[in-house]
From TrEMBL:
Example of a GO cellular component annotation carried by this entry: ATP-binding cassette (ABC) transporter complex
Any one GO MF annotation of this record: transmembrane transporter activity
Lineage: Bacteria, Pseudomonadati, Pseudomonadota, Gammaproteobacteria, Oceanospirillales
Keywords associated with the record: Signal
Name assigned to this protein: ABC transporter substrate-binding protein
Amino acid sequence: MKKTILTLAMSCFITSYAQAECGEVSIADMNWMSASLLANVDKFILEEGYGCEASLVPGDTVPTSTSMVEKGQPDIAPEMWTNAVKELMDNAVKDGKLAYAGQSLSDGGEEGFWVPEYMVEQYPELSTIEGVKKHAALFKHPEDPEKSMFMGCPAGWACQISSENLFHAMNLSDAGFTLVDPGSSAGLSGAIARAYERKAPWFGYYWSPTAIMGRYPMVKVDFGSGVDKDHYINCLTQKDCQNPRVTMFPVAPVWTVTTASLKQKSPEAFDYLSKRSVNNSQMNELLAWIEDNQADGEYAAFHFLSEYEAIWTNWVPADVAEKIKKAL
């Protein structure tokens, strides 16, 4: 009996110590769905698996990164697109204020010119820009059958400049294409959806991960150029790019960023965050499910933890995985 009581007492002490060691952890609930999903997954796993007292706080790229550097809060940014705040992030890591944990998206954020998968199945050449130009007549402009349509990026977005510069660099107008402004994000995604419903031709700009990419399989067109990141940043993203050259869009790194204090006080939690990563295909699928079910971040997290056990159990030790399974 004494042995049993001692064992229970030790167990309670170990649990209490683990909770005290992790303590309070704040997580940025960024205002886009993939990041909100990851924030809610982190909250559940850190609470149930590691004994943390986790809370969500509203977040966005610039205010969250600035607050982490200047105030040390929040402790975790689950999905930080670091290109937008690269200098701030790199300097803060160098100064010992922040730490890069793992890549939230193992593929990084992906931009490109795309065609529907069903078109490539019929015309394999369409997977390359030369093939698209050769078969330009397939992509008839709805208002002028004598021309072909390339769907660009909505006006006012940064990608409008880069996609327009690439349109000129590839001499797509000489191949018969006209650059069309979709008007909005909804207009762009709606154009892809309508094309898929009719199995109609479509060629244009889009990005991943998104629900659209999860619902409608698309093929990214190979420009045959490789990636020239310097030219992309210094010329193609600038309105006054005088001599645009063809390059594939560089991958946008997407990291989980933490404060250095979190890494120090809870190395086990940091180790989990360094392993917590999904690829674009998985996130596209999840975002399509979220949109179809009108789910919020919390509901989406429970769906992910319940249905994607084979993925998340690789992020944590076996004993932590068992705690999470019981909590679910």
